[in-house]
Amino acid sequence: MHRLRQALAHYLPAVGIFVGFVLLWQLAVSVFDIREYLLPSPGAVLQAMVSQEIPWLQHAWITAVEILGAFVLAGASGVLLGMAIAWSPGLSRALTPFLVFVNTLPKVAIAPLFLMWLGYGILPNMLIGALIGFFPVVINTAVGLTQIDQDLVDLGRVFSAPKWKVFLKIRIPNAYPYILSALKVTATSAVVGAIVGEFVASQKGLGYVIITTQSSMNTPAAFAALVWISLLGLLLYGLVAGLSRLLAPWAEDRAG
Asked: Where, by residue number, does the polypeptide cross the bilayer (predicted)?
C-alpha cells in the first residue's frame, strides 16, 4: 500500500494535467463548434487510432525501429566521442569545434542529402535522428567525466592506479547521471529525427501517415498518428528513466 501511494503521488499530477488538457480540448471543440478538418475531437482521434482503414501497427513498427536505431546510434557515438574529449585535451581541442559545426547544421536541409546518398528506407531516417540527438550526449558525457571531485582522482593516484583504471572505476561511474540525463533528451530528439526523415521522403511510417492524411484532409487520422508518435516517445523515455533509476539511483533520489 505504501508503494501504491507513492506511485499515485508521483504520477497523479501528470495524469491530472493530461486529463485536464483532453477535457479542455473537448470543451473547445464543442463550445466553438470547430469543424473536424480543423480540429477533431478527442473521441474522433481515438476512433481513428483504432480504425482498420490504416495499418497502424505496420506504420508504428517502422517508426519504432527508426526511433530505436537513431537513439542507439546517437547514444553510442555520443558517449564514445565524449569519452575521447575527456581522455585527451588535444582531441578535445580538435573535435569540439567540428562537433559544434555539425550540430549547427540545419537537419531538415541535410535530410534530402541522406536520402539521395542512401536511398529510401529505414537507415537514412535513423541517421537523421542520430544526428539530431547525439550532441547532448557528447557534451554531458565529457562534463560528467571531467567535473569530478579531485580527491577521488588523487586517491586513485595514491594507490598508483593507471589513468585507464581511474577513468574506468572513478570517472565513468561519476558520469552516469550526466549521460543518462542526456539520453532522456536524446530519446525525444530521436523521435523528431525519425519523423523529419519520414516527412522528407518515405512510403511507410507514422510520419508518412501524417503527410498523406493531411493531403486528404483526414485530420483525425493525422492527430491519431501524432498520438502514436507521442506514445512511442513516452515509452522510450520511460525505458531510459528506468535505466537511470537502476544505474544511478542516487541521482534520481536527488532529482526527486
From this structure: 12-32, 60-86, 98-120, 126-145, 175-201, 221-240
